[in-house]
Amino acid sequence: MIAPALIIALAAVILVWFGISRGLTPLSELQAEIAARSLLDLSPVPEEHAPIEVRLVIASLNNLLRGLAASIDGQQRFLANAAHQLRTPLAGLQTQVEIALRNDMSTELRGVLEQVLAATQRAAHIANQLLALARAEPGSQYLMAHQNINLADLIESIIGSWLHRASVKKIDLGFEISAAHISGDPFLIGELIANLIDNAIRYTHSNGYITVRCYQDGGVVLEVEDNGMGIPESQREKVLERFYRVDGSPGNGCGLGLAIVQEIVRQHGAELMIATPDNGMGTRIVIRFPRAA
Ligand SMILES: Nc1ncnc2c1ncn2[C@@H]1O[C@H](COP(=O)(O)OP(=O)(O)OP(=O)(O)O)[C@@H](O)[C@H]1O
Ligand SMILES: [Mg+2]
Fold first, then answer.
1. From ligand 1's centre to the CA of 85, what distance in Å?
2. Would 37-143 and 147-289 be classified into the same CATH topology?
3. How far is the CA of 202 from the centre of ligand 1 (A)?
4. With a threshold of 0.70, does the pTM exceed it?
């Protein structure tokens, strides 16, 4: 009698084990799906394949995700609108101070007005950077375009507007470009290149050089290289954070440029790397895009 009882008990254990693991499979699939999501993906979790018992949990989770997405969206809109609203009065203020400075006045008053002008220019720069960041963020109210862009043409059309600033610092600003096609938003990619060139000019000493490069291999590569002060290895991740500046950085930047660049890189499924040029001095920012279909 013991042998059949043992066999029945063993069969019961196997059946229960098989039943439970089979019953839990949809839960493990759900867990794998949630774990594989990117932090930026707030779309609802599909309910159809889940067992009835957990559908209510998924429905509550989806409600929470919807609320979170709406709240992030609201904050982004607020930021974009606030930055946009600030730009007009700041531009007006800047013009008025510039007009005032054309008149005769005491040296003391001129000094004060020059400081007001510098502060206004800085505030306008921050408002512009905040607006660019709001535009580059995922889920921004501005829909991202997916156009075929030849980086070579874009660089050629942008670089002219930087030559004057580079020549004031006696920096040799040049480019090495060959046809390189990506799919993306021309406004955002223009913003990305402008921020990289702005940094290269700001953080490179007089008589330095800057090279903007693009080429196509397995993917598409955009590089901005300078022989300036360089970014220490320990700071290379931190400089991508918002409002982070390396201690003692010259100029009056606000620490948003590379955060904007990083956001645009993400939106285009690209990768950013901060390296040192082959001669061991300066900074080389390398961005690798997927090739346009
Ligand atoms: N080409 C570069 N060479 C040396 N240091 C750089 C370079 N680019 C960026 N950095 C460093 O990284 C920091 C962050 O750069 P980021 O562009 O984000 O901010 P910023 O230039 O200070 O301000 P913003 O661009 O918003 O006006 C800078 O403060 C600077 O110290
Ligand atoms: Mg910058």
1. 26
2. no
3. 8
4. yes
